[in-house]
Structures are given as C-alpha cells and as structure tokens.
Amino acid sequence: MGAEGWCLLLCLAFSGAANVAERQWQAVDVVLDCFLVEEGGHHGGFASSENMVKALLVLRQVPVLDDGSLEGLTDFQVDTLTKDDPLITFEASVNLGQIPQAKALLHADCSGKEVTCEISRYFLQARPEATVEMAAWFITNVQVSGGGPGVSMVMKTLEDAENEAVLHPTLKLPLSPQGTVRTAVEFQVTTQTPSLNFLLGSTASLHCSYSVAPGLDVTSVEWRLQHKGSGQLVYHWTTGQGQAKREGATLEPEQLLTAGDASLTLPSLTLQDEGAYICQITTSLFQAQQVIQLYIQAPPKVRLSLLNTAPPATLICNVAGYYPLDLSVTWTREEKGGSPAPVSDASLSSLRQSPAGTYSISSSLTAEPGSEGATYTCWITHVSLEEPLGAHAWVAPPVAEQKSALGVLLASILFVLTLLFLGLQRRQGTKEAKERYGALEATRLLCYY
Any stretches that span the bilayer, and where are they (predicted)? Predict the structure, then answer.
C-alpha cells in the first residue's frame, strides 16, 4: 500500500470522526508523494532541473492535535510497498525539528487539496566537523494548494547501523533494511499563508516561522520584496539588531528568538507594498526561505447620475478609486412589476489613473424608460467586493414629462388671461367712473345758471 492507499484510510477515519470534548496531541506518520531532483543543488527554493523521479516522503511520528479523526489510524508500513515499485522512499525523523503545519499536510487529500512536494540535494557552504563521510543533506519544499501552508525542510541522512549497508544505485547512499533512505529534519521554515489580500491603507501581517535542531543558531532574518522585475530590502535582522528599510515595518526580536516567529508587520499599506515577499532564515549551517504573495485591493466607489431629463435621457455611472485593474460594469433595466433585464448597449470611457495608482472609469447609457418608467442599475464586479455593488436610478416616462410640460403651459396661459381680465376690468371701471363724474359736473353747472 502506497501513499494513496494510506491517505484513503486517513480520509475514512476523518469522515467518521466524532466530536471530542478534549483534544490531545498524537504522533502520526505523514506520507507525501514527492518528486526527487536527481541532479543539481541549491540553497532553498524549488529546483528547476527536468531530471525528476517519483519519491515518497514519510515524516515519522509527527505531533498532531487530534480532532477526533486520528482514532484507529495506524503507522505507515514500508514493507507494504511492492518490490517492483520504483519509488525512492525517504524516512524522516522529526525529533530534532517541529513541523507546525503537519495537520494541514495530513488532511490535504481529504480536503480536496493538492500537495506539491519536491526533494533535492542541499549543499552546505561550510561542512561541519565530525561529519560522517557518507552523510548528505536534502531540502524538501512542500506547498498545499488553495492558500494552504508552505514548508521547507532541510534533512540530513542518518548513518546506518550496519557497516555493509546496501547503497542506493543512483543516490549512492546507504539504505535501511527496508530499502529506505533514513533522514532527520534539522531545520524548517514555514508560512501559514503563502497568498494574502489586504485593503489599501490597512495593516498586514506576513507569517513566517522556523524551528532548528539543538546546537544550531539563527544568525540572520531577511525580508525582501520582489515586484515587476525589481527587488528591494524591506527588513534585516542580525543577532541583537534589526533594521527596517520600509517605514513602519516591524519584527519582534523576542518572538523571533523564543518562539521562532519571524513574522513581519507592515502598517498603512500602499500600492507600492504589493508583490512577492521573501522570508529568508539563515542559521550557522543552513538557509531556507518562504515566499508570501501580498495583493493590495481598493474597493470601487460608485455614483450614478442622470445627465439630462429631456428625452432621450442619458445615465452616467462613475466608478472611482479601485485596484487592481480588472473590473466589470454591467447594466440592468427593470419596469414596474417586472424583473431586471440586462442592457447591452452601454459604452465605457477611457481608463483614468490617480497619482496614488488607483483607477477610475465611467459607463454611459441612453435610457429607454417606456410608457411607465423604468429603474436602471449599474452593477460593479471587482475582486475587492464580496458581492456586486449596484447604484440605482429611476427614469420617468416621456408621456409623464409631456403632461408636466403641458400643465406648466396651461398654468402660464391661465395666469396671462387672468392678468388681461383684471386689466380690462380695471379699464372698464375707470371709464364708468369718468362718465359718472361728467354727469355730476353737468348737473352742477345747470343748477348754477
């Protein structure tokens, strides 16, 4: 039974797990399907050699917090491998170095995630004294898909008890009686989150931790940023001294030395902080690293306005302050009592970019409200939004606008007619008054004579 069968048993145990009130640590074997790079060596990172063969990595007795899924799980038996199986099997003891992400590696297959595992030779810059002549080092880089953890482990081969041990035909290393290459993990660097998304202006924490075998000391921690083909130093720590090259970047020396936590904090994120961050840990013998991809996001602000009310009405949807560039603008139209229907004849303006690096764009649409009027919605889809963002506007029907204009015209005409009528009434009243005054004056003169 290979790694696939062993993981199947684990998944069956996981699916039937019961909730437990108290969780306990349990030592289990973690089995990973890997590829071995037979040629070339490097000091960390994934190798690029095409000469790769299948291999099996068995991490022996790794402490894992039991969530009820480990009951009945048996240790991996090397003798279950078929004799004609071409796999190179590495057995790795973790007594000297912890594997904090072992649970994620253990349950990856059950969670529908893929594990990429690559093993290659690791060559020391300075070979330590009292090193067995046949000793060799390997580095294993493991990555769980879907935002899972990443682990880099440096393993040292163990001297076999038998002096006349059989050598592996290509590795030229002694094999155990079971035909495996026995190693011990002496150094590991891990990150819980190889990919992160943060909003513009927020504070980011980039996780990076390590563990070392007794007798090894961490001599330096370096954080570098790679983006669009250029690199820069962000933070550098050596024993007793830390130096931030990016303003506000912090690393806790106490946590670094006591808990193996080399996480970096970046406040007030700008678009210049986006990129691939390399956390590199150097010890007196080894060097390994993890890469954390940091993405900056800025949610769009949307404003929908009616450019003119006279037919044909034009709607303008302004979208501003968003990042990254990819953004979708769609329109829907909804009449009273009906359902929203997509509108496809909208147009987009040219893209605009602010000094801060965020983007803006506008979409315009000629409204056709119909006889009852219609509600138009501008929908924005962007990676920073959990769901599409919409802005709504109601456009009145042309008939209603004509009635309104006719009403104003009738009111104006009525007002003018009223003024004319009052004017005529006043003029008629003045004429009658003059006639009465003239009659009175004639009567007075007649009486006088």
Answer: 405-424
